[in-house]
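hey can u check if this looks right to u? its 319 residues, i copy pasted from the old doc so theres a chance i mangled smth
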Amino acid sequence: MRLLATIEGKEKAESIAAYLLVKSISTHVEASEKEDVWEIWTRDEDRVDEAKLEMAQFLDAPNSPKYVDAVAEAQKILKDQKLKQQAAAKNIRSGKSIFQNIPGSNIVSGGIPPITMTLLVVATIVSFTTDFMNPQPRNQFGTMMYNELTFVRASDYAATKDPRASLNKGELWRAVTPIFLHGFTFHLLFNVLALAQLGRIVERIEGSARFAWMVLVMAVLSNLFQGLMPVNLMGYHRFGGLSGVVYGVFAYLWIKSILRPDMGIILSNTSVAIMLGWLLLGFTGSVGGIANLAHLGGLLTGVVLAVILANVEAPKWRR
């Protein structure tokens, strides 16, 4: 969230908050340390400039009729949103949706933002081009792509038996690129669907620039955790998939929504149970070859990022 202004008087604070709501700009009003002084925050990272402009106009003429009229209109909007929230809650209990959208937040619906879309498109193209990590002899381009994107080049590992061999040669991109490889169609489908839903929410909350580096951190740490751990601890150098990033984004959204309920998103208990249950099931070895350490590494990375950013962004919220 971004702080727009501090305003003296609760009635004025409510007026501008109502007007911004009518403009479909989500806000949060919070009491400051000073008596009867209120902080106006916006949740919409992509509309901060517009919100600042509206705030400047309000401060020049706070008694304008358009701000007075906005209060009644905002009350009607909130009433409609409450009805939608109640319907969404029914869907959550019936398993139709994994998210509850709190009034004032429109980040769940809509199209897929650019970073999330790029990840989905690239992963799909790479997976099919490389014949799902098993390129056929006639598929020379797919073979070349696979060799360049794996955590360690097959020839390097054959010569050294060291999963770090290609990284040690300076091919640092290999700490990231395995996220685009997938072993079979269901693997790709599950990751694409999960990231399409989870990723677009986090990207809208945090903005594309921050989401991009978050994905980079999640990819690197989950891949290193999977690729460099000993085999007897479930490490393995030949792996691929967006699952580590999916678990990172899931954990980030889950933990940050708990630490910052003002975000307006709640991850349902059913969804949390499914994600954690699948993680634990993978470690039992009963569901075949899964990059369990990548899942765990992504999960832990998402938790740490959520704790760090929640504390950095809103230290006052805990008071």
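The chain has two domains: 2-97, 114-318.
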